[in-house]
Amino acid sequence: MSSIDTLIANTIRPDVQQLAGYHVPDASGYIKLDAMENPYELPYELREELGRRLADAVINRYPVPSYTTLKQKVCARLGVPAGYDVILGNGSDELISIMVTACARKDRRATVLAPIPAFVMFSMSARLAGMDFVGVPLRPDLSLDKEAMLAAIAEHKPALVFLAYPNNPTGNLFNADDMAEIIRAMKDTGIAVVDEAYHPFAKTTFMDRLPEFGNLVVMRTLSKLGLAGIRLGYMSADPALLAQFDKVRPPYNVNVLTQIAAEFALDHMDVLDRQAELLNAARDELAAELASLPGVEVFPSAANFLMVQVPDADQVCANMLAKKVLIKNLVKMPVLANCIRVTVSTPEENSEFLNALKASLGGTT
Ligand SMILES: *Cc1c(COP(=O)(O)O)cnc(C)c1O
Predict the structure, then answer these.
(1) Against a cut of 0.90, is the pTM above it?
(2) CA–CA separation, 298 and 306 (whole Å)
């Protein structure tokens, strides 16, 4: 062993050494349909105005860590109930990390539970924080297996349960009554996090139900709305619970440029909302066209992506890659055989995807 290998063996946690890491493929020259990004930019006049505001950013100073103005705008514009505040994160990825860090107690077993397949950062963050992760498979129709979830809650007494609403990578909304029963089942013993990353498209929410459940956290992000590059997530919960999480948050976790860009975007929500409506309509069109292809099944989606079952996902993805179209292969995910996930994009990119898929299904590259 070289001395650097010895150093790593002696210092880095064995589970971290084993980890593959979150792989983000190089997308230059590709049609990028693998990360649920909004393909539309802000109109040029708005970007010019944003540029002027960013020119005035006080970048020689640390951010003011209370983030009062931005938080007030988030609360006022995004439906946070009266009396509730938010915590901001460097993307909701950081908020997940904050919650698991706060719950990863050392004095007894601490568990994160989620239906699977789920957003990979739930299990990844849990394990990095030293928590156990328990995944409960969805039913074959992609609905929550409520009985299995309740049994797992009784058995493992999870500190945190994550429910993405709609779910990623499946795209469907779980039954809200089933979710409420799961949240209630944990009451004083576990925190239920409803991850509404796709709220701009699904519109349906648990945010207004915060007063009903003391153990509920509602988490969202500006990423899927069209601001993935600025990295801003937010979450709300009972103020006493939020105050605990806030102690774990790095004080300057949202930078001043993000703060200015987010405030600007919130002042122009109408533009972003219209883009989301366009994408919803495009999703339904794309779903209908996919459904007409032989051997292809499309699953219902309330998000800006579609999960699609094909005869051979590995082959389709390899063929699509050769055609310079990036999609997500879900073959390694439980429950789903031969599924791919594709982000809904502009009409042009959607039809390029469709054409590439049609050609790929035939097995020709
Ligand atoms: C994309 C996604 C996120 C991550 O959002 P960021 O704010 O960009 O970190 C969180 N949860 C789910 C379910 C997602 O699909």
Answers:
(1) yes
(2) 7
Q: Which atom of ligand 1 is nearest to the CA of 224?
A: 1
What are the structural domain ranges in the chain? 22-42+270-360, 56-267
CATH number of 56-267: 3.40.640.10
Q: How far is the CA of 234 from the centre of ligand 1 (A)?
A: 11
- Fold exhibited by the domain 22-42+270-360: Aspartate Aminotransferase, domain 1 (3.90.1150)
| Residue 65 neighbours by CB distance under 10 Å | 14
Distance between Cα 9 and ligand 1 center (Å): 32
Task: Give the residues surrounding ligand 1 with Cβ less than 6 Å away.
Answer: 36, 91-93, 119, 164, 168, 195, 197, 221, 223, 228, 233
Tokens of 353: 């995807």
> Under 8 Å CB-to-CB from 74, ≥6 apart: which residues?
80, 86, 88, 234, 262, 266
Pocket test for ligand 1, best of 93, 193, 198 (most atoms within 8 A of CB): 93
Q: Each residue of 300-347: pLDDT tens digit?
A: 999 999 999 999 999 999 999 999 999 999 998 877 899 999 999 999
Residue 341 DSSP SS3 = strand
Q: Could you give the 3-state DSSP secondary structure of residue 136? A: strand
Query: Measuring CA to CA, how many Å separate 122 from each of 107, 134, 283?
Result: 22, 10, 26
